[in-house]
User: Fold these one by one.
Assistant:
Number 1:
Amino acid sequence: MTDGTPRRPVVTGLRVGRRRDVAVAAVPDPSVSWTVEAEPGWVGARAVVRLDGVEERELGPHGVLERWPFAPLAPGSEHRLDVRVDGVDGTASEWSPPLRFVTRFLDAPWSEPFLAHPAPTREAGPFVLRRVVTVPADLVSATLWSTSHGVHQVSINGVDVDDHVLKPGWTSYRDRLTVTGTEVGALLTPGAEDVVTVRVAGGWFTERYGFGETARRHYGEQPAVSLRLELRCADGRMVRVGGDGAWLVDPAPALVQSGLYAGETWDLRLEVDGRGDGSEPWLAAAVHPFPADVQVQAADVEPVRVVDERAPVAVWPNPDGTGTIIDFGQNLVGRLRLRLDAPAGTEVILRHAELLQDGELYTRSLRAASATDRFVADGRGPRWVEPEFTFHGFRYAEVRGVPESVGADDVRAVVLQSALRRTGWFSSSDPTLDRLHENVVWSVRGNTLAIPTDCPQRDERLGWTGDAQVFSAAAASLFDVDACFASWLDDLALEQRAAGGVVPTVVPNPLGSFSEVAAAGWGDAVTMVPDVLRDRYGDLAVVRRHAASMLAWVEACAERADPSGLWERGFQYGDWLDPTVSRPDKARTDPGLVATAFHVHSARLAGAALEEAGDHRGAERARALAEQTSRAFRDAYLTPAGRLMSDTPTAYALVLAFDLAPVGRRTVLAERLAALLRAGGHHLATGFLGTPFVLDALLDHGQERAAERLLFQTACPSWLYPVTQGATTVWERPDAIRPDGSVHPSGMVSLNHCAFGAVADVLHRRIGGLAPAAPGYRRILVRPWFPEALRHASVVHETPFGHAEVAWERVPDGVTVCATIPTGSSAEVRLPDRPVFDIGSGTHRWTVLLPPAERPVALGVDDDLARLIDHRGVGALVSAVLREAEPALAEEFDAYIRWVPGRTLRAELAAVAAPPEVVARIDEGLSSLAVPPR
Ligand code: BGC
């Protein structure tokens, strides 16, 4: 301010509930959140919230998922909320721009019957319902409520009621369904006869789940839909159109067959007038009572939507000339939209795959998912076609049957995901590292479709609890997953209850007793995922809500442990997919050590959650279990000299991350971890359970160099190796495609699996140096790590308090660091050249003097070479020559070049003692690339 008076704080981003994409309260007592923009260092004292312009309540100043301070709201009501804030310095904001919102939850238990095909002739047959509705002449507004055993869309007079895809997503059908409420008044014509059409397919409900021979339809054989249209009239009356026999079923729908794994078959000729040739009469829908024991709740998550559309990067004929191969340049999740112009009866076949082998789509990795869509053309001229109730994971597609060839303008990939808001970004001076980060973004995108999944392409796509546990923090560093994961946790609690306290390995659980096994690292999703939501979103409600489930899980683990607390009996997935072994279930780390470590960790988290929920006795019980088990752990697995009985990187990473060793022994444990990694050539040597923790374990205990060599390793297996092979998503195993181009024989070769992508969170928290230090980033830890391989890095995060950012860049004597802290938050800053200090909100800059050893060896001209190595494949060329001539050197070179990019190429070759004839061949190769030999 020019006159010296401080600027008044401004309240922004007011919302109710967890979602930001709609102004809707899905419960009578939604949380309230807002952010404040104010002068640097401004500290809030209190907030006043006003409902409907009259009632006022005072709240604390933070505005992060605050509890509803008023009486519960009535269903179907409209409201206005305003907030103002006061600062401790006496400044006060104006009232915020008003938030106008509606309540959309049920006023009574749901009982609308299910409508289904009366005489289905096909397995899991999709169907279309239709009904004429007489709209009252004095219609004021209308709400449509709908849910399904399967997936559905409703249209009124031919217009879809919303842009949701695969509605209403997937919940634990036996216990819970979500109903979507949509305002549809604008689509209805007062006084007219309007046509309501409902398209229904089996989706997750009728899918066959299981492995090989055991696969079966777990939930039901046929889809069904349950809906109600509420028409509100000027005189106050409400007309309800529900599920009764007046709904008619199309005898021959154009969507002939639909499956998530299988894909869809459409006969477009049957679309004529929406009812085939009109010769067959529509049938009265079958009406089944709604099951009494299923809870129905208003949907409170971001729906799946089309979030992107991509054009092909290349299109060419397939090897036998029978079709066209399309490359979208990005492995993604969704489906094709194709311009079709073919004579009636022509069958066009669309196949999908993540990979090409010998020029053909490689579909073996999809297992039983045929991922094939078929369209039989109607011959009525060109039109765009797209399947409706399926999705595929693919980068490549093949189109067969089109009379003319398919051009790049004739096809698009439509990307589907739960419509989550992007909240986190990372970039650095290393394009390979940035691409790894981008690959994680795409894998999280592909595995947050309605629920968190393991993979999006083969015949699984399940809510594996272990995968969600492992990638929840990375997902939260990239997207706002609070509502999506909170909803999934509700299903987890229901499935856990049905399994007697054991958290099943998949949620929702369509695998029955197969997944009702207590598996460490999987079941711990019940404690660890709420902990992530608490840290990243300040979501204490989710922690309180699941505190009892956490205790039930911890007790279930204790029952399986021996009296001392060691959990060494029974089945475990263990450190699944340890990259040093071929069999996914044969990790080197002792499964008992892993299980006992997770048991302690979960018992501690459960203790804190129970305390938060006000259950002090429960908390005491959990803490006692944690204490006893950690003692047993130390006695059994930790030697007095600081080694572990299972001498593997995952064992050390877990012990350090979960605080399982006395303080005095941590340094020596970390040294051993670094030594093991060194002995393994700094390759990835941790599976699902160790990978999220290994870099933190090193960085927290002075092993930066080992962390750097591990992270920047490009040879197989490593985080960056897939990037060097052109990966555009994270692979299930880091060696899914081996250096010789062959696919790993283990069968675990999804190219879109998030677990190893847990590293994205480390990039944000450690390289970016922006980490939550109190729930919801109310306090931030600014502690960037400056790997020698990087010249600069930055991270941006939209926290619940607002925009936060940390960026750093090397300068001749060290590094400049710039941090932006949002209003209402504060930060602890840890920089290598000074004692720890605190800052308030606003933008801060420092220059950090680095001791010479931490400066990159050379900056300036040699940077150009570093860039060439990254961009033009010079490094790849050198390592290819070495691999042929001196394989042992190649290995060392790959590791070396990655972590010391500033050095000259000759110095690097000298450092790995390359023989002169090798250097000569490399020089020759370089001149062919038009790079000056050095
Ligand atoms: C899934 C995993 C999952 C695992 C259980 C796999 O088939 O794709 O990611 O966690 O089974 O070990």
Number 2:
Amino acid sequence: MDGKALAEKVRGEVAKDVEELGSLGLATILVGDDPASDVYVSLKHKDANEVGMRLIDKRLPANTPEDDVLALVEELNADDGVDGLLVQTPLPDHLDEFTILSSVRPEKDVDGLTPQNAGLLYLGRNGHVGATPLGVMRLLTEYRVPTAGARAVVVGRSPIVGKPMALLLLQANATVTVCHSRTDDLARHTLDADILVAAVGVPGLITGDMVKAGSTVIDVGITRTDAGLVGDVDQSVAELAAYVTPVPGGVGPMTRAMLLASTVKAARYRRGLLPFP
Ligand code: NDP
């Protein structure tokens, strides 16, 4: 599956939406100087810039007190020039991630991490949903991979990838199994999967002998190694699977593109063009 090509298509759709909606703003808050987070935030800005969105780049020192971070979130919540707002994680240890992420106004919460958006997803009345699971669903749709009645296995249960992924697949009428670090005999589950989503961060965890012939394998994992970025899925899977997403060039570009699409959605919510559920 070519995530790069599909992401290009999504960006084209977003650029048209931006033209239609007029000025659109995406704000990011980065606390501290984690180099990986810095790269992610910079890429988000580059993408937003390319589709004509305005960027609001807020950076705070690592030792910023929680109240000051919350005050900045409040300021951006109230700012009419900000459609989408995200707080880059991980946050420094002294900050409570739940408190800070929960303080984002739900209509602007493009990462879908407020209790409101997470709850809406749980109830099947989606508001904002994280860009990575949205990107995976878009890949499945684009490549016409049937989900209704399919057996889907998600490896990983984080709030940002695994859990929302499982819920979206369930909404798409797949029969979903969620595996994690305490799962006994992982292969027993993965071998059954028509759709396998690996979102772990352990290079090569999923090998050819763990995958059903003709299945679709989505590799969300990204680990930085000396040889470059590697996913959770071993090369040997390509011989068996009908579809597999490469790393890089699969889910990564889709995540970036879907964040832009979510910012468009946020703008529609805020302008009353789309009712927030
Ligand atoms: P987390 O570390 O939050 O979650 C990892 C999950 O994998 C946990 O649920 C953990 O289980 C599970 N796990 C760990 N080891 C094993 C194992 N040996 N067998 C089965 N399950 C295991 O990571 P994220 O969800 O944030 O990200 C997952 C991966 O996806 C990372 O590599 C990350 O870099 C990448 N990523 C890629 C994105 C993209 O755009 N392509 C976007 C976001 C993330 P437990 O809950 O029991 O600890």
